[in-house]
Specification:
The complex is a heterodimer.
Chain A: E1 2-7, H1 11-23, E2 26-31, H2 41-50, H3 100-104, H4 114-127, H5 155-166, E3 172-173, H6 200-211, E4 215-218, E5 223-229, E6 233-241, E7 246-251, E8 254-257, H7 260-270, E9 296-303, E10 319-320, E11 335-342, H8 347-352, H9 357-366, E12 368-376, E13 385-392, E14 398-403, H10 408-427, E15 436-440, E16 474-476, H11 491-507
Parallel strand pairs in A: 1-2, 1-8, 2-4, 8-16
Antiparallel strand pairs in A: 3-10, 5-6, 6-7, 9-12, 9-15, 11-12, 13-14
Helix pairs in contact in A: 1-6, 1-11, 4-11
Chain B: H1 8-13, H2 18-23, H3 33-39, H4 60-76, H5 84-99, H6 105-120, H7 125-134, H8 146-165
Helix pairs in contact in B: 6-7, 6-8
The chains are: A alpha/beta, B mainly alpha.
């Protein structure tokens, strides 16, 4: 029986556990720096009634905040990691996303291509219970079916769709990790009472029941160092028990780092030893460099008519446009966006403000809010990097130091995309003076690139099997291995890589 | 001495329409000076319910008093014809809020004291609720007073629960709403959809 250590209990870790236990004879120990989280009806009630942020106490340490790359509130340190509050949007990358350097001169190409990953995308879509349009072949699906049909467009979507049609902007159904057998459209998706939205938390709970003692999950146990036996082999990890304060160690035949971009990177750096003086896998200096994220754009406007009393009746997006997520836009920075329609104010808020029924009705039919939001591809830059800060966080992990600049071409394109949103809102009938726009810097949720995949150790940190160059049994499986980030949300691609790696390790 | 500063001019100043003023019962502006100290007694600025470890079941009479808030909102905003089924669900849900930590039991008891106080002074239940929900006080520590906390932890939460669970939102022509179990997304009844 193979003994495996997985560090991090987010999407990558949970999907790896599921595949490894299904296909291989192994014993897995998973380490999570954050605490356990017990679900229950009372938590759902609090989420509904107080609209409270259940996850704020699991945010990153305040000292890690950075002006150009937000960390607070984007990642969660808890069992299940950031999937506890993710939106569940799961578009595939497109074929051209794997060829950024060849096509544009920016960033790096992936050493694998879309077709290499396609079968694993299909498997990840099934394991994560994704709803989507199986007939949409952009990107190509080669006949693979989503496990659940797409969410039909809402009546409110039609206003945005009409505007898109008149501007000749293509659109489609959002692919989203909402298990169609469980979703009951209750709109409290950030704490789904039915576990319909995929979370690694629920996945791991099921795996612990299913596989019993083949899986041991140690929460509040940050790994402090990867232990090496010579230059090529890892023999396990050192970890801290936050409950007792005791340092401990564990041995294993393979170690897989699934701790997200920042923590995976810092763990390689902090594990420096005499064979790897600058950090494991860092002989060519790529560990921590090439940091990328998704700059965000949004716009909001008020349309002075709402005879159908449109309101947000579905708690998640059903519409996506990947019109600007195409080869033509790749040299400038690709972008996808979604939109929704709602009343400007909730019914309870109006009642609590003593607005009369008559006034509520009048307001409801007289105006609606249309909002658009999207993310764009950021080009990597060698100088954008993550390194070790001073001291440790309350989770027992090294603090994060981030150095980033802003790519001028991305800034220019971001402004263009915002203007596209404004045009769509005006076409949808929003009053010009009601339109507000904004743009945000990338944040930790989609951070990528700092342990990038490459053919040679001169160009990156891990090989095409996500094995740290120059090692036999040490792997990184996080967004950190992405050589470029594309415009699409990264989690499905990460899931596909995790399944691919599981199969590789099982066969090894 | 705290000063009750609610008046029509104030409402106009904060942008509420004449329609709102028309439905505002005069009773809601008549909180007597004698009641200020009880309504505005400092309780706690904790972001947890007061004495959140004190668990227990809300008595039937206390639940009946709290349920008058739902009846008042239901009637004043013409939400649903029959509240009985909803009140059964509310009772069950408040059980979860008082029996598990952080317990809302003392928060609910404080809120109930305030309603009883105004009713005992001769206000109708409707007037009492109108005053408790909407009267404006010039107290800079209002959020930490009994009334401030009751608005935040009790009245606001219960109304936020009532709109979806009582299906009150449907009276506005909506089909689904945050917190309502609308059914499978593949069901044509779960939300209004369009044909692209």
């Amino acid at each position: 029986m193979k003994s495996i250590i997985i560090i991090g209990s987010g999407a990558a870790g949970a999907l790896m556990v599921r595949q490894l236990l299904k296909t291989g004879d192994c014993q897995i120990t998973m380490f999570e720096a954050g605490p356990d989280f017990t679900r229950g009806y009372r938590k759902w009630l609090d989420f509904l009634m107080r609209e409270s942020n259940l996850y704020e106490k699991f945010w990153d340490d305040p000292r890690v905040e950075n002006e150009h790359f937000g960390l607070r509130g984007s990642r969660l340190f808890m069992k299940g990691g950031t999937t506890n509050h993710w939106g569940g949007l799961t578009p595939r990358f497109k074929p051209e996303d794997f060829e950024l350097k060849s096509r544009t001169g920016f960033g790096a190409d992936w050493p694998i291509n879309y077709d290499d990953l396609d079968p694993y995308y299909a498997k990840a879509e099934i394991l994560m219970g994704i709803t989507g349009d199986s007939n949409n072949d952009d990107p190509p699906r080669y006949g693979a079916k989503y496990p659940f049909p797409p969410t039909s467009f809402t009546l409110g979507d039609m206003l945005i769709i009409d505007a898109l049609k008149s501007l000749d902007i293509s659109y489609g159904h959002m692919s989203i990790a909402r298990n169609g057998d469980r979703c009951i459209t209750t709109g409290t998706c950030n704490y789904c009472p039915m576990n319909a939205r995929y979370t690694a938390l629920y996945d791991l709970e099921q795996l612990q029941i299913e596989y019993g003692n083949k899986l041991t999950l140690k929460t509040e146990s940050p790994v402090t160092k990867i232990r090496m036996d010579g230059k090529k082999s890892t023999r396990g990890v050192n970890f801290l028990n936050l409950k007792t304060g005791a340092l401990d160690s564990m041995e294993a035949e393979a170690v897989i780092v699934c701790s997200g971009t920042f923590e995976s990177t810092k763990l390689l750096l902090v594990s420096a030893n005499q064979d790897w003086p600058d950090g494991i896998g860092n002989d060519s200096g790529h560990v921590g460099r090439h940091l990328m994220g998704h700059p965000v754009m949004f716009a909001y406007g008020v349309r002075p008519e709402n005879s159908d009393k449109l309101h947000q009746e579905l708690g998640f997006d059903s519409l996506i446009s990947r019109h600007f997520d195409s080869p033509e836009y790749q040299p400038k920075g690709k972008m996808w966006f979604s939109g929704s329609v709602s009343s400007p104010s909730s019914l309870e808020r109006q009642i609590l403000s003593n607005v009369s029924r008559a006034d509520m009705n009048a307001k409801m039919i007289s105006e609606m809010a249309i909002s658009l939001g999207g993310e764009m591809e950021q080009f990597e830059h060698t100088e954008n990097r993550v390194s070790l800060g001073s001291g440790t966080t309350r989770h027992g992990l090294p603090t994060t130091k981030i150095e980033v600049g802003v790519h001028e071409i991305n800034l220019k394109t971001q402004r263009e995309h915002v203007q596209t949103f404004v045009k769509i809102l005006k076409t949808a009938g929003c009053k010009e003076d009601s339109i507000e726009t904004g743009a945000l810097n990338p944040d930790g949720a989609h951070a990528s690139g700092t342990c990038r995949m490459s053919i040679s150790d001169a160009d990156g940190v891990v090989n095409t099997n996500l094995q740290v160059h120059g090692t036999d049994n040490l792997y990184v499986c996080s967004n950190a291995v992405f050589p470029s980030i594309a415009a699409a949300n990264p989690t499905l691609t990460l899931g596909a890589l995790a399944i691919r790696l599981s199969e590789y390790i099982s066969k090894k | 001495m705290n000063k009750l500063i609610i008046n029509r001019r104030h409402f106009l100043k904060i942008g509420l329409s004449s329609g709102v003023l028309a439905i505002l019962p005069f009773g809601c502006v008549k909180v007597s000076d004698d009641d200020f100290s009880e309504l505005l007694k400092f309780v706690s600025d904790s972001d947890l319910p007061v004495n959140h470890q004190h668990t227990g079941e809300l008595s039937n009479s206390d639940f009946d008093t709290l349920s008058t808030l739902c009846k008042y909102v239901n009637q004043a905003w013409e939400l649903t014809r029959d509240l009985d089924e909803y009140l059964g669900r509310l009772k069950g849900d408040l059980y979860f809020k008082t029996m598990k930590e952080p317990s809302y039991l003392t928060e609910y008891e404080h809120a109930i004291e305030l309603v009883n106080l105004l009713v005992k002074r001769g206000e109708s239940v409707e007037q009492a609720w109108s005053s408790l929900l909407f009267a404006n006080f010039g107290d800079e520590n209002f959020e930490s007073t009994k009334l401030g906390r009751a608005r935040n932890f009790v009245f606001s939460e219960i109304i936020t629960h009532q709109i979806p669970i009582s299906e009150g939102f449907k009276s506005f022509g909506l089909v689904n709403y945050r917190g309502y179990f609308g059914g499978p997304y593949t069901s044509p009844d779960s939300y209004r959809r369009g044909e692209a």
